Amino acid sequence: MNLWGIDLGGTKIEGAILDPFHPEQTQHRLRVPTGGDQGYDHILSQIETVVKELETASGTTRPAILGI
After folding, report:
1. Is 67 in contact with 6 (CB distance < 8 Å)?
2. What is the pLDDT at residue 5?
3. What is the pLDDT of residue 28?
4. CB crowding 15-48: b at 16 or more within 10 Å, else e
5. Which parts of 12-54 are beta strand (E)?
């Protein structure tokens, strides 16, 4: 099972999928602007976009637990 994580920052949201046995090797990574000036709903939408793009890139579905 791979580890999925989201880094929510002031200017960017970055998602990554890591192999738990080799965490230094990122399998997939995606970064989008946070767009915080557009409001809370926009930030949630951006997080959703990152997760969906990671699903597409990895060919898997998101795990039950996602670290933020």
Report:
1. yes
2. 95
3. 95
4. bbbbeeeeeeeebbebeeebeeeeeeeeeeebbe
5. 12-19, 22-33
CA distance 32 to 43: 10
pLDDT given for residue 12 in this prediction: 97
Indicate the helix (H) or strand (E) that contains 46.
helix 40-58
- Catalogue the E-assigned strands of 1-68: 3-8, 12-19, 22-33
Taking the C-alpha atoms of residue 13 and residue 31, their distance in angstroms, rounded to an integer, is 6
What pLDDT digit, counting tens, does each position of 28-60 carry? 999 999 999 999 999 999 999 999 999 999 999
pTM of the model: 0.89
Assigned token pair, 9: 């920052």
